[in-house]
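[recover] target loaded
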């Protein structure tokens, strides 16, 4: 296997007053980035960390579809995003048809999601075609439900509903789909060697927790990344890491949040840095 391309993105503070700020998305991205690069030889990885204002729409789009496209077929890619997700129904579409789901960069405008955010429904397949690497893992600690609400126990949701979506849901009772669904409930084909690890499933919320000082999902993913006995950089089967994370997240949220792993899992590996014990 060739080089690793490691991209981590985190946003707490949004320019729009209509998007609630988060507390721990930047900590998630920074901690994941440090865990992924720890102990690597200088020439074995290319890395990029975008947080807060640097995680704007232009930089996020260029990083996903431009910088990661520099990876060769023998390289591996890990891209991580922590922040808000959002969803809306197209203005000119059938209100019962597909929902557009978005990652929200720091300068996203909830009234103009198409032009100021990153569409998972439509840009993700384009990004995937541009990335030639044979092993790609996309990790999203966000959701596409909820209203950025905060709860009394120090948790809050990482998802908002765009205004267009709220209007259409009130009028039609539109059913929700996960970010990568197609009309009729079918799945997008994201290709061989590609996996998407998401913090929660449809109709659920990705929670962050003030006690953990992280997103719940990222907290347990970081623990899984740090539990290697020799402390050396390595590749672990993605399914093994997922099994550990999903069990811990379910326990920590009383079953309210179930991480989702999608893609073709044959020989899929998650390339990790060394543990803190190294």
């Amino acid at each position: 296997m060739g080089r690793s391309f490691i991209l981590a993105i985190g946003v707490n503070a949004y320019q729009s007053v209509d998007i609630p700020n988060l507390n721990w998305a930047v900590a998630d991205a920074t901690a994941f980035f440090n865990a992924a690069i720890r102990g690597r030889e200088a020439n074995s990885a290319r890395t990029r960390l975008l947080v807060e204002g640097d995680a704007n729409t232009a930089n996020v789009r260029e990083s996903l579809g431009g910088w990661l496209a520099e990876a060769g077929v023998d390289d591996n890619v890990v891209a991580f995003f922590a922040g808000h997700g959002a969803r809306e129904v197209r203005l000119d579409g059938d209100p019962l048809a597909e929902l557009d789901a978005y990652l929200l960069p720091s300068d996203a405008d909830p009234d103009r999601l198409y032009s100021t955010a990153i569409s998972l429904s439509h840009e993700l397949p384009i990004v995937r075609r541009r990335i030639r690497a044979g092993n790609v893992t996309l990790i999203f600690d966000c959701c596409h439900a909820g209203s950025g609400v905060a709860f009394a126990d120090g948790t809050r949701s990482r998802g908002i509903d765009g205004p267009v979506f709220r209007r259409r849901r009130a009028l039609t009772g539109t059913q929700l789909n996960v970010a990568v669904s197609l009309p009729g409930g079918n799945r997008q084909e994201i290709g061989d060697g590609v996996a998407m690890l998401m913090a929660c499933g449809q109709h659920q919320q990705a929670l962050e927790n003030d006690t953990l000082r992280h997103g719940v999902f990222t907290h347990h993913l970081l623990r899984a990344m740090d539990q290697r006995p020799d402390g050396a950089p390595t590749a672990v089967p993605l399914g093994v890491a997922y099994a550990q994370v999903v069990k811990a997240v379910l326990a920590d949220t009383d079953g309210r949040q179930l991480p989702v792993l999608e893609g073709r899992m044959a020989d899929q590996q998650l390339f990790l840095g060394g543990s803190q014990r190294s």
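[recover] notes: The first helix runs from residue 25 to 37.
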